[in-house]
């Protein structure tokens, strides 16, 4: 299991506590210190079944000056912008060893990924 997190985020701390409680082995990626590349983000959004703009935090994206159309033609621009401004990425993002990936902001999402280890 891998978790992309910001340790200052309460949802991230909750996700880590749930992983610990379940006894799940995991690695941490502090994505603000080690930002994902556009390619890594492309892979994550594909596994999530979402578009890049769906994983953007609206306020942080606006603050970063990300003002792109939410349409397929802008997909690569979104990926590049999120890679350049990782604070604008939703968190936490968890990926199980089988590739199951969720944005772990609620108990249901966390349960889906924890059950897959």
TrEMBL record:
It holds the Pfam family ArsC. InterPro entries: Arsenate_reductase-like (IPR006660), Thioredoxin-like_sf (IPR036249). It comes from the Bacteria. PROSITE patterns: ARSC. Belongs to the ArsC family. This is Arsenate reductase.
